[in-house]
Design a protein that fits this description.
Blueprint: E1 12-18, H1 28-43, E2 46-47, E3 52-55, E4 68-75, H2 79-99, E5 108-113, H3 118-129, H4 134-144, E6 148-152, H5 159-168, E7 177-184, H6 197-207, E8 211-212, E9 215-216, E10 221-222, E11 232-238, H7 241-248, E12 257-265, E13 274-276, E14 286-299, E15 305-311, E16 314-320, H8 327-331, E17 339-347, E18 356-366, E19 370-374, E20 386-387, E21 394-395, E22 402-403, E23 409-413, E24 420-422, E25 456-458, E26 461-462
Parallel strand pairs: 3-12, 13-14, 16-18
Antiparallel strand pairs: 1-4, 1-5, 2-4, 3-4, 5-6, 7-11, 7-12, 8-11, 9-10, 12-25, 14-15, 14-17, 15-16, 17-18, 18-24, 19-23, 20-21, 21-22, 25-26
The chain binds zinc ion.
Length: 464
């Protein structure tokens, strides 16, 4: 068989990083961005995708700080080069972590050689939407052993969930967005971030709805600027790389920006939620459940609003917690009989409550007309009449007027709630939560091999 026309494909590798940071500083995205600069400059590596930032299930109790894994996907000459890169990544990660050593961080790295097998994709989906038992992690590693290398920089295998799940979460046929992250110069770490809030407002107005959650007008604060000691100056999230490049042109800073990188990510895609029924809304799962309101919402201590829904399989509590702000005012208008779809992660039962869906978003499908049945009003004096017994008519308690033919009156109360989607204010969005503005903008395709261009800048100069 002649094969002269075939182009020999280079081996593809995927390197995943998780928790290369700590509450004291550092940031996995920053570590990977710096490593990327080094590898592009010194080794001329070829990425086959933008660097990926994969957020995992925010409901798991042992999540890492940012709860996101970073992945570099690239082609290599041969397996020796793969080994080489992985070794270098480990050495660099050790150096980086030692600057910010923290007892609770569980830094880990993993490398996978070749196309992602279905089983690893399945594992990744579970890590985004559900919990992964450590035994399942062990089984996965066992199955893919010859093609995977792992490294844990501290005790605890659990750290590997992030780096392996990131690798498996390929985002070729699932929705995705992009984030441009700008990094600070080290002498500014820990100091107030010098980003002009007015310029962020202008950027927001010029680029939305193609950028996501830049500014919260309710509290008049930019949302692109993090707090804390990490090296991130700001991060702009959006639908495509071009709009992010345009957006950063509007943002004015009074401190140097040393590095900017565009990541492809599952942020704001609701990747952590799956449609299911009440009976299968198990603790820690991200769910979308359709049901009928079965208990009137009530506001409890702390300002949380709790109600219940039921479907054919059972009944479950739903809570709009205090941080969801104005969403609680909508939820409070629900009445038993209303049909809703609730979005959120299931909180496990506690001593005082059952399993509860932590509400992130709600769709009011139908509001039930509210009917009140009342006694008739006395036509003589205007007082509400009293029944004289079943089928015997009504009598006025004030003037004594009797009407044996009077009937109860049915009245429709106006409902101050329209069917539709409702979401919390921008500031209470978490990484994965999809804002309503993204509905209809979902992407379903990304090429398996793609050479990103215009995605990394050093001191303002395009590196690639
Ligand atoms: Zn009367």
């Amino acid at each position: 068989m002649p094969n002269g026309g075939q182009i020999k494909r280079l081996p593809i590798i995927h390197i995943g990083f998780d928790d290369i940071d700590s509450p004291r500083g550092g940031c996995t995205t920053h570590f990977v961005a710096e490593l990327l600069v080094k590898w592009i400059k010194n080794r001329g590596i070829n990425l086959i995708d933008y660097p990926n930032l994969v957020r995992l299930n925010p409901g798991v109790p042992w999540k890492t700080r940012g709860n996101g894994a970073l992945v570099l996907r690239l082609d290599v000459r041969d397996e020796d080069m793969a080994e080489d890169l992985f070794e270098e990544a480990i050495v660099e990660a050790e150096k980086y972590v030692s600057k910010y050593k923290h007892p609770e961080s569980q830094p880990s790295l993993a490398m996978f050689i070749g196309e992602i097998p279905g089983i690893l994709e399945f594992f990744a989906g579970k890590a985004v939407n559900d919990i992964v038992p450590i035994t399942f992690l062990e089984r996965i590693i066992d199955k893919i052993k010859p093609r995977v290398k792992t490294s844990i920089l501290s005790k605890g295998k659990r750290g590997l969930v992030g780096s392996l799940a990131g690798i498996g979460y390929r985002m070729l046929n699932t929705d995705y967005t992009f984030e441009l992250i700008a990094y600070r110069s080290p002498e500014y770490y820990g100091r107030e971030r010098l980003v002009d809030p007015e310029s962020v407002k202008i950027m927001d107005k010029e680029t939305k709805p193609h950028t996501i959650l830049n500014f919260d007008y309710e509290i008049d604060k930019p949302l692109i600027i993090p707090h804390g000691p990490d090296p991130v100056l700001y991060g702009i999230r959006g639908e495509d790389p071009d709009v992010l490049v345009r957006a950063k042109g509007f943002v004015k800073t009074e401190e140097p920006v040393t590095l900017e990188v565009i990541f492809r990510t599952n942020q704001h895609t609701d990747a952590h939620l799956r449609e299911t029924v009440v009976r299968k809304a198990f603790p820690y799962r991200g769910v979308i459940v359709r049901g009928i309101v079965s208990r009137k919402p009530s506001r409890i201590m702390g300002g949380h609003v709790i109600f219940s829904i039921r479907d054919d399989t059972g009944e479950i509590d739903v809570a709009a917690y205090e941080p969801t702000g104005s969403l609680r005012n909508i939820v409070e208008k629900l009445l038993p009989g209303d049909e809703v779809v609730v979005y959120g992660v299931v909180r496990p039962p506690g001593p005082r409550h059952g399993a509860t869906i932590n509400l992130e978003k709600i769709r009011v499908v139908a509001v039930k007309p509210q009917i009140v049945v009342e006694n008739p009003i006395c036509p003589r004096c205007g007082k509400r009449m009293k029944s004289m017994g079943r089928g015997k008519g009504f009598k006025c308690p004030r003037c004594g007027y009797r009407d044996p033919n009077a009937r109860k009156i049915t009245r429709y109360l106006p409902r101050d709630l329209e069917p539709g989607f409702y979401e919390p204010p921008p500031r209470s969005f978490k990484h994965l939560m999809k804002p309503i503005q993204r509905f209809g903008r979902e992407k379903k395709y990304f090429p398996a091999v793609y050479s990103p261009r215009r995605f990394i800048w050093v001191n303002g100069n395009l590196l690639r």
